[in-house]
Amino acid sequence: MLLLLLLSMVVNAEIVSSKGKDFVIALMQQISSGSATLQISSDVTTTVTIEAPFIGYQRTLSIGPGLIETRMESTLRETSSKISFKGIRVKSEKPISIVVIDDTSPSVGAFLALPVESLSHEYMVVSHPGRKSELIVSPAADRTTVSISLRTTSNVTFNGLVYSSGEVIREVLDSFQTWQIQSDSDLTGTVIKSDGKVFASSGSQCAHIPEVAKDCDFIVEQLTPAISWQTDYIVPLARSCLNTVRIIARDDGANVKVTHAGRSWSTTLTAGGFDDRSFPHDPASDPVVIVQSSRPVMVTNIISSDPNAAPEVCGPAMTVIPAVTQFIDSYNFRIPSVRRSDLKLILPAAKMNGVLINGQPLHVMSSVHVFTGTFFDYYVIDAGTSGLGNDLNITHRENIDFGAVFYGMMGSDSFALPLGMSLDLTNANDVIRLVGGSSAANGRVEVYHHGNWGTVCDAAFDRKDAAVVCRLLGFYFGAADPVPSRYGPGKGMVMVDNLDCDGVEADLHLCRSGPWEQSTCPHSRDIGVNCSTDLRLVGTTDPREGRVEVFYNDEWGTVCDDYFDRREAEVVCRALGFGVTGYFYTGGGGAGRQWLDDLQCSGREADIGQCMSKNWGVTDCGHDEDIWLACYPQTKVRLAGGRSSAEGRLEVYAKSGWHSVCDHMFDVNDASVVCTMLGYSGMQTGSTAQISVYTHAQFGQGQGQVAIDELNCTGHEADIADCPSRPWLVTSCSHLHDVGVGCASSIRMVNGTSTTNGRLEVYFRGQWGTVCDRNFGASDAQVVCNQLNFPYFSGYNSVKTGSYYGSGNRPVVIDNVGCNGDEIDIALCASNPWLSSTCSDNSIVGVDCGTSVRLVGGSSPTEGRVEVYYNGRWGTVCSDNFDQRDADVICDQLGYRFGTPRKVYVNGHYGQGSGPITVDELQCDSTESDIQFCVSDPWLSHDCTHAQDAGVDCGLRLRDTLASDSICTSSRWNIRLDMRLMERVFPHSNAGDIALGQTQHCSGQLQGHELVFTNGLSSCDTTVTTTPEFNVYTNQLQYLYHDPLHPSIIRNVNWTFTLNCEIFRNGSVNFGINPGNSNTGNSIDSTAHFTIVQTFYSGFVNQQFVNPLPDNPLQLAINSDAYVRLRSPDADGNTKMIVQSCLATPTNNKNDPRRLPLITDRCESDQSVQIVLSSSHDFGFKFHAFSFDQSNQGIFIHCEVKFCPVTSFTPECQQFCRH
């Protein structure tokens, strides 16, 4: 069935021309592989951009008034029947004209390009038999649906499928895509339709004209929109050529009259039908053919060699002929290199003498007067161009419109084209519309006639008249019911009454009626029409779901599932008033007639009667292929019986119940579609997360039917209903084969300080969201870090609460998450339902998956023994294969990027550790952001001893902050600290915390970036030692650690410099420093040579302290157990730590008179105290908590520690009680 032109668009006065600012061009295949030339002309200066993404081509040209040429790559020419990406886009700031010329012998052709504003939605193909008739289409915008209704005597193959005449091929194209169709026979009359503007051209790779001719040539022409066709044409014939005038009808009932040399021929054409008339041109005959039609037609002239003329004078060429109403007022053209050219001008007889070519009066080689006594009074002129050059600018003194057609003869290689034309897109004929209805398929009938809209009277109006109206609007089947008065009265004129159609007319004018524009019918009798197809969904109790049935010829019937997809579902659901795209499945079960097969909609139709299909009632389906539809956005699916909503038995909702899915052929592609539907990650989201498939009812057997068998998705579908399968609910599969699915989440960390930390975000239902910190713990962080493929989870301070990395201003996806720690995905952890959180923006969780590294035992934080926190303990790194690259990664990870060389120390240089040896055979390449990404043996697997503990100096130490000109004089210190370097060693250093003296704490003065101490040698706790040769003045420069809860209380000393000033009797001075150890914890005795760390716990299990407690002060419920641990992490193997005494006070002053001794002279002195651990470098005891007063403000623990050689066994160097 040939689908006629839709006449439902709104009419505006839209006269456009071949001049414009935006062009879409596609190059059709020809037998030559040569390139094409774009001939671009402009009347003013402008800038032109040419873009062809297929070859990465983009070029900007400047055109003055005149013409330029640019040659396109041959690779942009289409070479097969397929969809490619070879479109060309040309844009200009000012209007331009473009002629496309294939001038590569032996295959020559040309066509006039039309701008986008001159394109439309429907074209009719003109071609010719030869070596492949062909057409090519390219859209002006993305997602343009193009349908091609074939008219050919040969089959057409596309994408491996064979199509015959009358069948429709449909594709959706994006900008720059090109679609070429080829046939071994003539494609003339094939209809191209689209829902957006498209470029369309047609012709033949190499046409034989006449068909018995020996030679062939490429013929091509850009098609003009069918809506712009006209009725009156003057065809100038090419000299010494055989001219074949082809006339193609747009509508049925086109009465065509052809006149030449005083003779006339008449014929009546149907829509898509054509008539060829051949006319030889000789000097004695009339060089003009006149075509007149009662209905719009397109006229082309195909030239070829005249058997009675000289051989190879006119190779085959084809041109569209502009109608006499399509002329414009000026033309620009560059004549290619040709053997002979014919420039034909068509002018009103009264204006013949006003033509100028390049500003010179026209040289008339010959002319003929075309006069019919009614409409035509023109001269057709054979214009001479000799001596004018190749670039032609053709105008008229009075700026009138006239026609111009060019024939270029190159022997057997010729071309022809109009040099310009205008197009009337307001409609070449009367149009019709429906107004005031609930959709485009119903409303008051209005027709556009003689420039005005008017209504139709209901007098004698019946279903046959309604059928003509509906068909003109594109509703070819279904209902066509007259509806008097329902849609209200119209305005303007009642155009016609007593309409009396037979029901098959192609236009209301072909129906019998009263005189147009003379009706006396009032607007109260304005007729309306309902073109809607009656639809229903049956077979369930849900009005939105059921088997699709249509009412046609007074009988309900079903729809076959062939070609049925979401576009058809959208049209049906919208027509039923549900307004959403439905999901569909093959449910079968119908009876009686099956009305529709191969239904193909674009999705934009108002009714399925506008969609393409086989003729209604013609089908090769059985009722087992009846389509079912649910007008919900997507198939209802769920996962049941799993640990969370992200895993379980797959169930779908169909026919009012939940049903399982068979595991036959079910794979990860199918599961991916399911997970995407549920909002989790799948192939559509680009996720590489692990999706699991479980067969044989691992989550238990379902209770309903087995709905789907042999599901076969690609993984990229939006819904499992889009995937091939056996008909739904028709299967021999049992519940023993119920399939299960485990979905995966996509997670990321953002806004962190490195790639290993940040705010945790989860992708769900098409958007990224956050996770609430409520009950989020280390086991949850462990699942996250494992899911993100961090190889070693530290667990040390890994959870960051309180929107530590910002709130993100995103929806909270997960709340109250509770992982066990062994899950492979956070989606498998227990939680509240996703996207149901009431969590505030201040409670968003962050995660740190980085390794915790520290340097211990050095003189500053930037050097020391390397220790790594893993499995809840600090451990060391073995120095096997440890080198500069490993040191680089560690120092960078700690933030020590000083630009100075790093040093590596092996064999326990900074003392031996006491915990596990965590890492062995570390082999970094210096580019890693974290040592967990370096190659190594599995952590905690080693063959080392602590004597091989590795150490690192990150290149800038505490002593480097002391200025080189620091000295002392005979009366005072002159100590200078570079605070810029201090900030790098100790970030956030405060000059006010650095003091001279152990007890007086004298402050320095900040001078620029230097902190200067010029105190006298007799002040600030300076001590003096006298010898016969010199006096030695000694003091300490200290960085005081203030209690963070009580800033006025100094809890510790972060580091010390021991200063020595030797003043000799002869007046000379010797200045020296001795850096003390850097303390990494709360040191107890600032005079010790090793670091002492004091920590508190609430438990001691299996020789391990558990549940750390905050201190400064220590606040506990009265009589609860508290454990005090003292350890020396950087003491070497030659020393041992002895705890001499410990006491508790309500303040940080150990001399506070309110005190309670806990350990005295190495013995428990309180009845609640019990020593639980005692080793060379680790000591611990338990006591019952108490309060000094009723306010229970907390307590401070003060201990004195002594370090002894391991070989000393004096009483004070033994950790046991002597009482």
TrEMBL record:
Membrane spanning stretches: none
Q: Cystine bridges: which residues?
A: C457-C521, C470-C531, C501-C511, C601-C611, C713-C723, C819-C829, C924-C934
> Do you know which SUPFAM superfamilies this protein is assigned to?
SRCR-like
**Which PROSITE patterns does the protein's record reference?**
SRCR_1, SRCR_2, ZP_2
What are the entry keywords?
Disulfide bond, Glycoprotein, Receptor, Repeat, Signal
Record domain SRCR: where: 432-532, 535-632, 637-744, 747-850, 853-955
InterPro entries per the record? IgGFc-bd_N (IPR035234), SRCR (IPR001190), SRCR-like_dom_sf (IPR036772), ZP-C (IPR055355), ZP-C_dom (IPR042235), ZP-N (IPR055356), ZP_dom (IPR001507)
Q: Which Pfam families match?
A: IgGFc_binding (PF17517), SRCR (PF00530), Zona_pellucida (PF00100), ZP-N (PF23344)
SMART domains attached to this UniProt entry:
SR, ZP
Residue stretches making up the ZP domain: 967-1219
GO cellular component, alphabetical, reads: membrane
Q: What is this protein called?
A: Deleted in malignant brain tumors 1 protein
